[in-house]
């Protein structure tokens, strides 16, 4: 039996991130969702074209070529701090028994 330990992810939903590698390198966007396979969907990043057929069962009247966001690996994005106007690494701190995220460069706690 193989045991897999999943560490807490440092990127959360609604965080603003910057893409570090790939065709969208340098673009910023808000995280819409996170998958357990360590992939994220970011607004306006990694847009792909999908050929979609209308489906009457799902009330999906949109057919044709549809553009949508595709998931990218969480290792290819970094948290973006507007206060310092740059990407930053995130760490975890325990204060009075509660776990908080903080910026490693300044020590500032992220809400």
UniProtKB/TrEMBL annotation:
Residues 10-37 form the KOW domain. SUPFAM superfamilies: Translation proteins SH3-like domain. The gene is rplX. One of two assembly initiator proteins, it binds directly to the 5'-end of the 23S rRNA, where it nucleates assembly of the 50S subunit. One of the proteins that surrounds the polypeptide exit tunnel on the outside of the subunit. GO terms for molecular function: rRNA binding; structural constituent of ribosome. Pfam families: KOW, ribosomal_L24. Part of the 50S ribosomal subunit. HAMAP family: Ribosomal_uL24_B (MF_01326_B). One of its GO terms (cellular component) is ribonucleoprotein complex. Belongs to the universal ribosomal protein uL24 family. Keywords: Ribonucleoprotein, Ribosomal protein, RNA-binding, rRNA-binding. Coiled coil: none annotated. InterPro entries: KOW, Rib_uL2_dom2, Ribosomal_uL24, Ribosomal_uL24_C, Ribosomal_uL24_KOW, Translation_prot_SH3-like_sf. GO terms for biological process: translation. This is Large ribosomal subunit protein uL24. Transmembrane segments: none annotated.
């Amino acid at each position: 039996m193989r045991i897999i330990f999943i560490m807490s992810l440092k990127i959360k939903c609604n965080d603003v991130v910057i893409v570090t590698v790939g065709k969208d390198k340098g673009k910023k966007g808000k995280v819409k969702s996170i998958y357990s396979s360590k992939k994220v969907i970011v607004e306006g990043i990694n847009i792909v074209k999908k050929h979609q057929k209308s489906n009457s069962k799902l009330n999906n009247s949109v057919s044709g070529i549809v553009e949508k966001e595709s998931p990218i690996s969480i290792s290819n994005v970094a948290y973006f701090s507007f206060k310092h106007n740059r990407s930053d690494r995130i760490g975890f701190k325990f204060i009075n028994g509660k776990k908080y995220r903080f910026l490693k460069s300044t020590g500032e706690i992220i809400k």
